[in-house]
Known about the structure:
The complex is a heterodimer of chains A (about 375) and B (about 375).
Chain A: H1 2-22, H2 25-51, H3 55-74, E1 77-83, H4 89-101, E2 108-114, H5 119-132, E3 136-139, H6 148-157, E4 161-164, E5 176-179, H7 182-200, E6 206-211, H8 217-233, E7 236-242, H9 247-260, E8 267-270, H10 273-285, E9 297-302, H11 305-312, E10 318-321, H12 327-338, E11 346-348, E12 353-355, E13 363-365, E14 368-370, E15 372-374, H13 377-382
Helix pairs in contact in A: 2-3, 5-6, 7-8, 9-10
Chain B: H1 2-14, H2 19-38, E1 50-54, E2 58-62, H3 64-71, H4 73-89, H5 96-112, E3 118-119, H6 126-150, H7 155-173, E4 179-181, H8 184-187, E5 192-193, E6 196-197, H9 198-216, H10 219-228, H11 230-235, H12 240-265, E7 268-269, H13 278-288, H14 300-320, H15 327-342, H16 344-363
Parallel strand pairs in B: 3-4
Antiparallel strand pairs in B: 1-2, 4-7, 5-6
Helix pairs in contact in B: 2-14, 2-15, 3-14, 4-9, 4-10, 4-12, 4-13, 4-14, 5-6, 5-7, 5-12, 6-7, 6-12, 10-12, 13-14, 14-15
Amino acid sequence: MKKKLLGAILSAAMVMSLLAGCGSTAAETAAPAAEAVEEAADTAADAAADTAATVEEAAEKVEEAAADTGAAAGGNIKVGFAQVGHESDWRTASTKSCQDVFSAENGYDLSFVDCDNDEAAQKEAVRSFIEQGVDYIIIDPIIATGWDTVLTECEDAGIPVIVIDRTIDDSDKYVSWVGSDFLTEGKAAGEWLKAYAEKQGIKEINALIIQGTIGSSAQIGRTDGFNEIAKREGWTVLDQQTGDFTEAGGQEVMESFCKSYAGKFNVVVCENDNEAFGAMTAMDNAGVKYGPGNDVILISYDACTAGLEDVKAGKITADFECNPLAAPTVEGVIKTLEAGKTPENQILVPDNWYALKDQIVDFAVEGNAQKMIEVTDDVIAAQY
Amino acid sequence: MSSINSKSFWRRIKSWPLLLPVVALLLVMAVNIIHDAATGANPLSFFLVSLKDTTTNGTILYGRIIDIINRGSEVAILAIGMTLVVSASAGTDISVGSVMSLCASFMCMMLAGYGVSSTTTLAVPLVIGLLAAVVMGLVCGAFNGTLVAHLSIQPMVATLILYSAARAIGLLLCNDLIVYVRNPSFAFFGAFAGPIPTPIIITVICIVIVSLVLKKTALGMYIQSVGINAKASRIAGLNSKLLIFLAYTLCGLFAAIAGIVASSRITSADSNNIGLYLEMDAILSVALGGNSLGGGKFNLAGSIIGAYTIQAITTTLYALGVSSIQAPVFKAIIVILIVVIEAPPFKAFVNRMSAAKAAKGVKA
């Protein structure tokens, strides 16, 4: 009997901690507000149906009514953000930027959902935002396809959707996309390598690429951009394998590369900093020397703080940023919408390219001259 | 005389329970010999092990075989616990991957201090961090064990709770961050002890201890008899519930050890990715090892070989340079082939064919 009781208590405790983990306070507080919005929307819809001739107009009125009551209920603009997960430092910076910008002090109520890289969970999160009656939905889509149904639901509910970072390919039912151009990042890495190799007198380039999660727009853009330059310049890309944007993945892939192509490669491209951390461990264990002044040029993307520290330490030769601080730009889009204007469909967040002084060379991407930033302690401290 | 000896030798080999798992593992590795020979490289280059001087870890063992045994450690450790669970309860523990992640997160949170995302110094002694992971693993295992043994909940449903919750709890403990513990003493468990990768040593210790306990005590037999018929075992005087509870608790413990290894390899707690999908690999190792997922008799060595077979497939696909997009398809095809070879009807078919051949020989 005692044992059974103990068992019951144990399981109860675990279930409680589970509930504590899942229950978000935002959802609880948002529920009554959402009801108020719904009621208001209903009455607005009735009123609109009488006067308005078309369904479309009615929908617009509902949207306005919802926005008005939303603003009236708490005075704050309610924003739902369905984030990919927190697989890397870059992601953490992106999340933090959103939480800082859409804070209560700035006049926002942010419902934040970490979707743990689960695409089904992300669509559920968006649907829960619709139920909560938020004013704006921000999505960083885990994958680029399968969005039309959910976005149609958002459109029907009259909630404008802003897509950040990754892209949506199979639907145009969102207001704006705010993010970095991954293709340009890939091309920039390629053009830099060309200029740097010329400066160093390196004639032959044999590259290995550790790709990101296959199918993500960051992977596609960075791989295609770099390979485009590689093809034009006649470089050899020995192999490309995915490390899933993780340190463990980068480690395992590089470990294998070091054996398959021992002594044959002089460039390693990692499609994010975490993969580069793993690749460095693997190269250490294989006795391969990398970084400025050594046989192997190590190129990385993202340029998070830890990545820049490794650039400073002379391990990563050049790091190509993908600016995660999209939130201020997103706030601009929301302000434009609040003012009743139409924002641009595609807004780029400016990226920077980082290296140490000796690795900084002049290069151009599609005719546009690029400026590189020298990594110093101040630059690292200022980085997210 | 010699022909009789060789015949009995073959008979013994044929009845060896590990024959098929070993054959499967060798077949996977043989692919590399063919590939290396075809590309003009040394046909045995896949199997060569050499010593390599490194600046960071001194002289270490280096080679693809070492990679397989090293990278396969986590699944091999998980497979030990999974084998016991499958045998005792005729069910699987699908929470081990998430529990791995939770234990790693809890440990790194202890080592770094709550809310700290990157550190090179330890906030508490390393031992306390390791103990924290082990205790967390035992608690999760005990939770699963209680649900299955005492509340008679279907194993898959019972472990589904922690499958989805454990990773999330780990996230909360780490304040939604990847916690980096870039400390050499912590990195040891994923790096090298002398020339040998530490994960290999940890795995060997786990396997030796468990096999000794199973051999020297009646625990193995008890677990098997509970798996074959829990009711009959109870009537015969065995505490079936306690044995099932014990199997799940041990499974949690091994998940914790696997979590320590995985997190030490990358000197961080990446709660989103540590142990991701590893529960499936652990279950597959048990099946590839020739064990029935219906419980009862088990063969621990088979499960371990199964675990290394899975890693051998992954490493082979890297070595062959199969593109990441196609790799899962090849992996699936190989697994299907192995499972078919090991299926009882296929075995029976092969036996019938060889019997028919023998009969023909007699007639002639």
